[in-house]
Amino acid sequence: MKKIVLVVILTSASVSAHAYDSNKMITEWQINPQNVSSVISTKKSWMARVDAKFISLSNVGSNCSPGEVFGERVWVVDNQPIKFAGGCFEGMPTFAALSSAGQDFIYNEFATKNSVSIGDLKFSAKGFLSALKQSEINKKKAI
């Protein structure tokens, strides 16, 4: 039990080194308490998340059932059409680029731009690389 409490305290301390502020999630990337780098769209109903170089988009304003599949669709990302596929993840419709080229394109847009447009959604790119870097540091520090 003491070990579990210590892990929680240390995890909290390392996450707070890059303080999570849900109020800033529209203006810049944040690391949530689960150590996931994420940002909310300006419409507030969609969230972009990244783990390593894998970026997914979740409709946080909608619910779905486990196992539900949403099929393929094309969304334009900063003037580049990209194929996405979706399914239910953590109770939310979630989509990701089907190809590694699509994933790489989206990653590079977030890494090099101030904002990224995906369909009619707009996401801030501010703090993308620093949040991703801090998330990786937290993973390495985890015991």
List the helices and strands and how they pair.
Layout: H1 2-16, E1 30-31, E2 37-40, E3 46-51, E4 54-59, E5 69-77, E6 80-89, E7 92-97, H2 100-112, E8 115-118, E9 121-124, H3 128-141
Antiparallel strand pairs: 1-2, 2-3, 3-4, 4-7, 5-6, 6-7, 8-9
Could you walk me through the main structural features you see in this protein, from its secondary elements to its overall organization?
With 143 residues, the chain is of the alpha+beta class. The protein has one domain (2-141). It is 29% helix and 36% strand. It has 3 helices and 9 strands; from the N terminus they run αβββββββαββα. It has helices spanning 2-16, 100-112, 128-141; strands spanning 30-31, 37-40, 46-51, 54-59, 69-77, 80-89, 92-97, 115-118, 121-124. The strands form 2 sheets. Strands 1-2-3-4-7-6-5 form a 7-stranded antiparallel β-sheet. A two-stranded antiparallel ribbon has the order 8-9. Strand 6 and strand 7 (92-97) form a beta hairpin. The chain is globular. The model is unreliable at 1-18 (pLDDT under 50).
